[in-house]
């Protein structure tokens, strides 16, 4: 029996922060034919609300330090405000969404990141083998669209802030044995570009040999290389395809005629 298609879609903060872009994006999500899991980032809302509450944002190399005040803040903002607004908007578009974080149904247990040179605080690292897929499969097969905030838990009552890309990749890998999974990363570029400043230079398809050739030619900008490394790691662990593209193109990028970059 052929596996059913599942699209695990991650949308980043640039869309979350822009009301009109988010509205269009969610209308497109609701129009997708097939099973969908949506994973969202937090955008800058937590930073803005933190400033009002006197909770200063701290970053090291672009990564948020999640201290005790900050984990409470991001739990409220990511798991509450952002997640529930997305769910309500999807419901308005006749998509039966359900808002979740990793603690719900014990779906995504994680461990607090150990302190090495930097103490990131209450940040969670995921072991894909620990993901509890049974509740998710029941929801998906029951016609629900799970919407995940970027939060996990340690099994002892502690919520952990967790990278949304990592959550999306981990869910895609964990569900690859059950579904034919395409992992879709939506961001502000049209795809993987030969020229980072020119959206007309999208590389439409990349396999390992093409990727190695692009690396040898130094044809890729540094920021995209970690995304591609993560994409091939997902494929190595059972995910059929990974798509990197613009949030505006999400509907097209769940078809065979993609507008972004298909990694296979």
From TrEMBL:
The lineage of its organism: Bacteria, Pseudomonadati, Bacteroidota, Chitinophagia, Chitinophagales. Belongs to the acetylglutamate kinase family. ArgB subfamily. This is Acetylglutamate kinase. Pathway: Amino-acid biosynthesis; L-arginine biosynthesis; N(2)-acetyl-L-ornithine from L-glutamate: step 2/4. The keyword Flavoprotein does not apply. It comes from the Bacteria. Residues 7-245 form the Aspartate/glutamate/uridylate kinase domain. The gene is argB. GO terms for molecular function: acetylglutamate kinase activity; ATP binding. It catalyses: N-acetyl-L-glutamate + ATP = N-acetyl-L-glutamyl 5-phosphate + ADP. GO terms for biological process: L-arginine biosynthetic process via ornithine. The record marks 10, 227 as: Transition state stabilizer. It is an enzyme of class 2 (transferase). Substrate binds at residues 42-43, 64, 161. GO terms for cellular component: cytoplasm. Gene3D superfamilies: Acetylglutamate kinase-like. HAMAP family: ArgB. It holds the Pfam family AA_kinase. It is found in: Cytoplasm. Its EC number is 2.7.2.8. Keywords: Amino-acid biosynthesis, Arginine biosynthesis, ATP-binding, Cytoplasm, Kinase, Nucleotide-binding, Transferase. Catalyzes the ATP-dependent phosphorylation of N-acetyl-L-glutamate.
